[in-house]
Structures are given as C-alpha cells and as structure tokens.
Amino acid sequence: MADGCSRRLPRRSRRSVRWTSFVAGESKGRRVRALQEERNALHRVRVEHNQDTLLVHVSNEDGQGWTTIAIDRPTREWSVAQRRAQLEAAQAAYNQLYVHP
Questions:
Q1: Residue 48, strand partner residues
Q2: In terms of pLDDT, which residue wins out, 95 or 11?
Q3: pLDDT in tens, 78-96
C-alpha cells in the first residue's frame, strides 16, 4: 500500500476549520448521482463503480475541470488524473491503473 501527494503545501491559516459534507442537489423525480458543495453547486463529486474499479470524480471549484481517482477494488491500488472533461480524466486514471495489452 502506498501514499501519494502531488506537492506539499503550507497549511492554510483560516480561523475556522469546520468540516462540512457534500450534499445531494435538487432532484426532479430522478436518482441523484452526484453530490455538490452546499454553498457552491459548481463544485461536485461523483462515484461510479463496476466489480473491479471505483472511480471518484471531483470537479474544480468553478466546475471547469476534473480530478479522477481510479481504485482497484481487490488490491486498493490507485491512480489519479486531471483533465478538462470528466470522461477524459476517468479514461486517463483508468488507463494508468491497469496494464493494457
């Protein structure tokens, strides 16, 4: 098992360190498949999966661009990718995680 970090940053010096959660947005009789930040609906998170892989998608704060973490379910090995489009980030993270013939 490995940890990873793109770059270490100085700790933010905010007075409030209260954590909150993402919430389900408004639904018009359909299942909610994404969560959003309560005060910023453009900042979203979504999780998809199949039997082998989890994909965790997180949008940029302004909704322009995505970070996707791909996790192999049996081993918990992971990869991460950032792209402008959610699908492109998902494909890149998935392709990094698995060896393709």
A1: 55
A2: 95
A3: 999 999 999 999 999 999 9
